[in-house]
Amino acid sequence: MTGVSVLLAIAAGLFAAGLFGVLARRTILMQLISLEIMLAGPALAFVAAGAHHGMVEGTAMFLIVLALAAAEVALGLAIYLQLRRDAGDGDADAARRLRG
Amino acid sequence: MLAYLLLLVPTPPLAGFVLLALDPYRLDRRAVRAAALVAGCAPLVVMAPMALAHLTGFWGDQIAPIFTLHVGNYEVALAVGLDTLSAVTALTVTFVSACVLIYALDYMSGARNADLRRFFALMNLFQAGMLSMVLAADSITFFLGWELMGLCSFFLISYNMTSPRAFAAGQKAFVITRIADAALLAGLLLLFLEAGSVRLAELIPAGAALDTARGPLIAALLLVGAMGKSAQFPFHTWLPTAMAGPTPVSALLHSATMVAAGAVLLARFAPVLAANDSVAAATAVAGVVTALFGAASAVAQTDVKRLLAYSSISQIGYMLVAVGVGVPAVAMAHFVVHALFKSLLFMASGVLAHAGAGGTSIAALRGTARRAPISFAAFAAGAASLAGLPLVTAGWWSKEAILASAFEAGWLGLGVWAVGLTAAALTAVYAFRPVFTALRAPETETPRGRESWLAVGPLVVLAVLALAGGLGVKPLTELLGGHPPHPALWVELAGAAAALLGIAGSAAVTFLPALAGRVARARRLRAGLQMDARYYALLVRPYRRFVRRLSGGRGEWVTRVVAPGRGTEGVERELEGAVRHARQPEGATSDPVGQATVVLGLWVWRALLLPFSPDRMDMAWMQGARGIGRAAERARRLQTGRVRDYALALALGLAALLLIGWGMTWR
After folding, report:
1. Sorted alphabetically, which InterPro entries does this protein's record hold (chain A) (predicted)?
2. Rounded distance, CA B47 to CA B96, Å?
3. Residue of B634, B636, B643 to mutate, testing the A interface (most A Cβ within 10 Å of its Cβ)
4. B140: nearest Cα among B174, B179, B175, B191
5. Helix ranges restricted to H, chain A
6. Which positions in chain B have a beta carbon within 8 angstroms of at least one beta carbon in chain A?
7. CATH 1.10.287.3510 assigned to A3-90
8. Residues A22-53, buried b or exposed e (16+ Cβ, 10 A)?
9. For testing contact with chain A, the best of B644, B645, B652, B658 (most A CBs within 10 A)
């Protein structure tokens, strides 16, 4: 297995671990951390692919992903605070008013 | 491109309907009235310059295609168009309906607990229907407008939803016009098959050029359609009961729209009728019979609105006569004049009824000449025009043109002329009965009432036109491509004499107690020869019984599943006597042949019909419908409301997409 394949496998693993965290954890804080891990996977893949092809776009995409992650965390924390205020704790499953 | 301005004629009322019907802004009464007024008068503002430009020859025939579809040899092309006929009719319709709407603003706001929003929404939709019909350049738009009017007439006649009478009247109007509309639809479809296009410009020549048996068939179907909409004998029964609707509805329905639509249809398809002599003759005869019948029935009425209803029937009969004797231009001239004076009569009678002792009976009008002088003068002008007072009224000029044209149309025309003349005399008799009654001194003295300018304004305008419009009859006929008849002097004198004689007769009927008593006792004539009761006994009741039998005495098995084997008692009870007879030993021996038929019938019943009763189709359908409900019940469980579940669904969906994508590239 060449270097880039190892890195891509690690990226996929990061993504899968993050996804598992989002699905398995109920605390919003933990879900946000898992989301960050999920984002780290593609970011790593971008950097690895950019290095492999010798192009700078991969690193540039990493910066964009970083900005995206920051924005997402800002929103996520706002939701977290609102939920704390409403339900008293950070349980994501408690907010289920959309239930059919 | 300017032709597309034509689209702006039916659109404002349609927009008014949408606005008022959906009412997104929760308009108050004042805003509802304003919206209805703008939507109702805008067509006139748009139409008047266009019609005048066309009629003065400044602007030629226009056509504005909306949508075109070619299927094989057939062409489906929706379009609106402007030619002389549509210019004249659309101008009349927009003008009269604007007058009626202005009047209705005042009239309806006085009515108790009136639902103005519903009323004006329907009035606007009605206007849109009639306008799209008269401006249509293809049979589909034509039929759509035609049907839209039928629907709106149902809603407007049954506007007063708390009155079962109004509802029954609306239902009757709807069903009877529907029967005739079926004939019209069949005629239009046959024409379409012949011409291969829905454009009226191609349909009508193709229909006129037909020399197979289909030609008369199509013409007859069109005639039946027109007769139903125009409440011609024997379809007339819906119109007098339609008086259950509010007065502005009657004024709109009976003058320029709805009932007059039949005359417009026949004038539009006049070449098709003219190509088939027998159908043209039938049109003339049907028209003159209706004219006489309507006039005679109107004489015996005691209610002023019913009197006017029979008079509409009778006057449209005259238009049919004109089309039948081959002068559709004269028919349209009479259409314009009739629209003016009939809307005037209805609206004025509404004001007079409010001013009088209450109610719309003729006797209640006593003394209203003093209480509401302007409205009375307007009513008298309308009545004079209806009666055809010689020289000074528009009604005389157009009716005289019809009678003279009939006189010049051969031996059949001579008969039609004679009957039409009698009807004209009777017209004068009934037209002046309310006028003379209103002139009589009231039983109790009451002060002069207030006449709102909003109600009186349209009346005055219409009254002037109903009198002075006679000057326009001849130019109008020539514009429409007809030749005004030039009858002998004595024919004209006979027409004038008929009207004057009728007015004298009217005075006699009103002021001589002996004659007035006879009119009051003419109950058979008042009920329109009791055609209504006969239809009920002959058609409605048996049909209802038939339906009830089919549904097993309950009308509701569509909504709930009935166990098989039930719902059949009706038929078996009918057969019971025969069954018992067949099962008797002596019955069997005495009549083996009769027994065989009964046994065979029962076998057919059990083997073939019982499995379908109560209708398996319905049961399957309802089961399917209920299945959807159950499926939805299950489907809603998917909506857990938990973010994690949705995230899982997203992830699974993404995985599935990736798998599919991978599978597509995999070799």
Report:
1. NADH_UbQ_OxRdtase_chain4L/K, NUOK/Mnh_C1-like
2. 13
3. B643
4. B191
5. 3-24, 28-53, 57-87
6. 636-644, 647-648, 651
7. yes
8. beebeebeebbbbbbbbbbbbbbbbbbbbeee
9. B644
One-letter amino acid at B539 equals L
How far apart are the C-alpha atoms of B190 and B203, rounded to whole Å? 10
pTM of the complete model: 0.70
At B81 the three-state DSSP class reads strand
Gap between the Cα atoms of B638 and B633, Å rounded: 10
The encoded tokens of residue B269 equal: 């398809």
Name the residue of chain B whose CA is nearest to A98's CA. Answer: B641
Q: What ipTM did this prediction achieve? A: 0.85
**Chain A, nearest residue to B652 by Cα:** A19
Name every chain B residue with its beta carbon within 8 A of the beta carbon of A93.
642-644
Residues in chain B: 667
Instruction: Tell me if residue B69 falls in helix, strand or coil.
Output: strand
From the first residue on, what is the mean pLDDT of each consecutive set of 10 residues in chain B (667 residues)? Answer: 81 87 74 85 87 82 82 82 86 88 80 74 90 88 90 86 82 87 90 84 82 83 88 83 82 82 87 84 89 86 85 89 86 87 86 74 76 84 85 81 82 84 87 82 64 79 83 78 76 80 82 73 67 76 73 44 43 56 51 69 74 64 85 86 87 92 81
